Amino acid sequence: MKAVLSLNSAAFLTFWLPVVHLLDTCNVTIHPKASVVVFGGSVNLNCTTSCTNYTQMKWEVSLKGAIEIGDGWSTLNITSATEWDLKPLCLVITEGSDPLTSAVIYVYNFSTPDIFLASEIVANRSEKIICNISSLTVGGSIPSSINISLSMGSSILNSSHGISSVEYSFVAKPQEDGDDILCVAYLQVASEVLEKSANRTLKIVASPYNVSISTNLKVYKSGASLVVKCHAEGKPFPEFSWDLPSKVGVEYSDGNKTITIHPAQVNHNGTYRCLVHNVYGNNSAKVEILYEEMSRSLVVVWVMVSLVIIGILGVIIWYCRK
Q1: pTM
Q2: Are 30 and 101 in contact (CB under 8 A)?
């Protein structure tokens, strides 16, 4: 009978010992388990334990930090994360095992993008825009999780993945003057996506372009009024001058863009050339304006009318003297 009781007791203890062991286990947790912090920045960690029979909670970390301890918890505040590889340990000392856990701190350097382009871009010339991240490190090495894009307005010019720069070659257009170039960089560190951006405004200069001439008459007769206008664009806005068949009786206005001739004579017949220039170049346009002689019949009529008028004047003068 005693042997049977001994066997039953042994079986009972064998059954309950694992349960008692499980009841005695405790755990340690750190929050946050993974932190993302810029090099030199601060990070705060909180360690908690479910152990009730511990004698001490402590931190093991390569950098100094302020530690606070309470009932079942302890905090670590690192004011300046100046090491790339930081894995703080939180350790709970008990009479049996010493449970512990670790956290990971992802230390990074991620500078704002720099956009490199000429201070003055000349239209119709090949130019290049470069966007570069001068400082890019995660955990002491260059990460592959970097994406950079260059855009102008709603258009993506170029993008790169896994490298710290992107560039775009183009031929500048005058109408792009004043457009904004935007460079956006995305860096994934652990579960976080960091974003930095920069923008520059295009300053495009151009020699004179779109030069043209308009006139109210391309064929004129003696006594007509001629108005000739020159049109041009440029950055900076160009200056205007003229090469004319004759400068007699010519009036200039609107910054030399417009000339007026009244009355036009036969010597104003010929080629009218508008010359435009700025510091980046010259351009020109021309138009032919032709003089139209009176027909023979009109000349005869004009002579007869003139003779009649002279005759009438002669009669009036004779009558007055008589």
Answers
A1: 0.71
A2: yes
Q: Which two tokens stand for residue 317?
A: 């003068």
What is the tens place of the pLDDT at every residue in 45-98? Answer: 999 999 988 999 999 999 989 999 999 999 999 999 999 999 999 999 988 788
Half-sphere exposure of 275 (CA within 13 A, CB side): 5
Distance CA 51, CA 20 (A): 14
146 has pLDDT over 70: yes
d(CA 214, CA 272): 11
- The residues, ordered by sequence, that sit 6+ positions from 53 with a Cβ below 8 Å of its Cβ are 94, 95
To the nearest 10°, the Cα dihedral for 294, 299, 305, 307?
140
Reported confidence tier of residue 26, pLDDT bands at 50, 70, 90 = confident
The angle formed by the CA atoms of residues 7, 11 and 13, to the nearest 5 degrees, is 120
Which two structure tokens, joined as six digits, stand for 137? 């490190």
- C-beta atoms surrounding 278 within 10 Å: 18
> Residue 102 and residue 88: Cα distance in Å, rounded?
6
pLDDT value of residue 301: 64
Q: Tokens representing 312?
A: 């009438």
Residues 227, 260 contacting (CB under 8 angstroms)? yes
